[in-house]
Amino acid sequence: MHIGIFGAGSIGCFVGGRLQAAGERVTFVGRDRLKAEIAAHGLTVADFGERLVLDDVRFVTDPTALAACDAVLVCVKSAQTAEVAAVLDGILGPGVAVASLQNGVRNAETLRTALGARPVVATIVEFNVVSKGEGVFRRGTDGGLIVERVAGGEALSAALRRAGLGVKVADDIAPEQWAKLLVNLNNAVVALTDAPTPVLMSDRTLRRVIAAIIEEAAGVLKAAGIPVARLRGVPVSWMPTILRLPDPLARRVLRAQMKADPDARSSMWEDLHRGRTTEVDFLNGEILRIAKRIGRQAPINAGVVRLIREAEAAGAGSPAMSPTALARALGL
Predict the structure, then answer these.
(1) How are strands ordered across the β-sheet holding 97-100?
(2) What does the H/E/C string look like for 115-183?
(3) Domain boundary among 107, 137, 171
């Protein structure tokens, strides 16, 4: 199967690398910087206890190279989805499956609007990937892929499963997407504090901040009548309580829920680090849109959006706020 990766950054390179290692033909489309990096060093995908080195990698910057693909994985930032959908509509043949491996809840809908009868597969990436430089992409947290069951997407789902990516197929993926969005609300906390995920989970003040962000957001979704799936078997509504547990107990529960690399950080942190616009409007900003629609306020998430936009405007990477400073800035 010939699979294209449109937006080959951390997630795209990791997933594409696993697919190529499993025997699929893969074409990566991404930025000049990564093209040069992989040309010089090859592509290495590292997992917990596993390291795959790929030398023969087709990495290009021109998306027309995807024209002959049987399936395409869209891994661009959510703000680019409409533009990418228009490009794909102009180059892909009928019946080519397109999967969205993106944050947020509306990307698959945007792709479907542009791509007509082509099968579009919403896909949730449960894990984080850290770009280590020199072509190395390391899984930062555990988890797999949740793939929407869509007619015409079966071959792509099978390829992802063969690549050892822990595929779970969902008939109704929307509640899973909302659960993932609630978890992704902590991306901004990583970006604002420069704290890797393990520190986020061990610091009591940061856990209290995340608990408040998720609690507010979950309340908005409940008021809007939006169903949210369990997260690894645990109702998301329990997460604020778990995060507020005393340190030893909270750490034990969170370690059981998620395995994390010591250097794991969010894609939003990387966006600030590289001077790019973040996806905060599609994460915390999504909560603000729903709150506005139902006539509610979400001041904590509004504060998060404001702080991220200030960091974007400053262009100096993470502001590296202390846990106490962040809590104070959010009125906690």
Answers:
(1) 58-60, 25-29, 2-6, 71-74, 97-100, 120-125, 145-148, 167-170
(2) HCCCCEEEEEECCCEEEEECCEEEECECCCEEEECCCCCHHHHHHHHHCCCCEEEECCCHHHHHHHHHH
(3) 171
Exposure on the CB side of residue 313, measured as CA atoms within 13 A: 6
**Contact between 240 and 215 (Cβ < 8 Å):** yes
Contact 35, 61 (CB under 8 A): yes
pLDDT digits (tens, 9 = 90+) for 118-127: 999 999 999 9
Element (H, E) at 27: strand 25-29
CA atoms within 13 A on the CB side of 45: 22
Q: Is 99 helix (H, G, I), strand (E, B) or coil?
A: strand
Q: Clarify whether residues 156 and 255 are in a common domain.
A: no
Task: Give pTM, 2 decimals.
Answer: 0.92
Residue (of 84, 73, 81, 99) closest to 153 by Cα position = 99
- Is residue 153 a contact partner of residue 121, using CB atoms and an 8 Å limit? yes
Query: Which of these, 39, 42, 8, lies nearest to 26 by C-alpha position?
Result: 8
pLDDT in tens, 287-324: 999 999 999 999 999 999 999 999 999 999 999 999 99
Q: Which of 130, 156, 171 is the last residue of a domain?
A: 171
Q: Is 281 exposed, middle or buried (0-12, 13-18, 19+ CB in 10 A)?
A: middle
Tell whether 140 and 190 lie within a shared domain: no
pLDDT at 282 over 70: yes
The verdict on 239 and 151 lying in the same domain is: no
